[in-house]
Design brief:
- The chain is mainly alpha-helical.
- Helices cover 79% and strands 0% of the residues.
- The chain contains 10 helices and no strands.
- It is elongated, with a radius of gyration of 27 Å.
- The protein starts with 10 loop residues before the first helix and ends with a helix.
């Protein structure tokens, strides 16, 4: 699926980064240096916490990235199979003109499903369940019309419909499989414990405190990156919804261009 850098073009991204930067400097201002006697002890703890933090973040980041990749793949698969369903229905009608009305009805069902996302966000994906079910009913009912049809094409159509249904099932499963509240709680506790010990082990020298603030800022950026991979922002949700809404519209536009070239 064509990617969009929605994170970099979303204003909330920059607001969060600015907030994290301000928080990092504020944090080092209020947490005091615990002294030279505690410094060595705290530095030893930091090495263990840093190792634990890296493992935890790597584990959660891998889960979030894999989920995002699978979700993108299944969205692309559904859109591709819907276009293929439409093309196969056209071939069936071309082979048997008596099925042109059936093809028209199927196109209307597909349009009803896809245009749901013209005004709605991808966040409400489940609203399309009944509309897509109507698409499958129209396809499965075709033999009941008692009209001769190309069985090979229809078999391919059934297989493609099954692939689209499977893709939708996987999208519904993956869409809301976020990092759990418990995992987020553990991550936040570990992050702020690490930041507190790091600050407590930093001398009161201004330059040392600035370096620590920057280090904490980078740690929080990793946390923010995990959040971005784990969640879709509004702009990304709108972008995906537009892909659905314009899925067959793009096909019709290509058909029109080809028709004009042949005239």
């Amino acid at each position: 699926m064509k990617s969009i850098h929605s994170t970099m073009t979303h204003v909330m991204t920059y607001l969060r980064i600015l907030t994290l930067l301000i928080f990092s400097f504020f944090f080092v201002l209020i947490i005091p240096f615990l002294g030279l006697e505690a410094q060595e002890f705290l530095q030893n703890i930091l090495s263990y916490l840093g190792f634990l933090y890296a493992i935890l973040m790597g584990f959660l980041m891998n889960i979030a990235i894999q989920r995002r990749r699978l979700l993108d793949d299944y969205i692309s698969k559904e859109l591709n199979t819907i276009r293929r369903i439409y093309h196969l229905s056209l071939h069936i009608a071309k082979d048997q003109p008596k099925l042109e009305q059936w093809t028209k009805n199927l196109k209307e069902d597909l349009d009803a499903y896809l245009t749901l996302f013209r005004d709605a966000s991808f966040y409400v994906y489940e609203r399309g369940n009944e509309l897509f079910r109507q698409v499958t009913y129209t396809i499965y009912r075709m033999p009941m019309l008692k009209v001769r049809y190309n069985q090979d094409i229809y078999k391919t159509l059934l297989e493609t419909t099954g692939e689209a249904t499977e893709a939708r099932q996987m999208i519904r499963q993956k869409k809301d499989q976020y990092v759990g509240h418990f995992q987020w709680a553990i991550t936040m506790i570990l992050t702020f414990t690490f930041a507190w010990i790091l600050t407590s082990a930093t001398p009161a020298d201004p330059s040392a405190r600035v370096v620590t603030a920057i280090a904490i800022f980078n740690i929080l950026l990793v946390l923010d990156l995990l959040y971005e991979y784990d969640r879709f922002n509004d702009k990304k949700l709108r972008y995906i919804a537009n892909m659905y809404a314009n899925n067959l519209a793009n096909v019709e536009e290509l058909k029109t261009r080809k028709y004009r070239k042949t005239k």
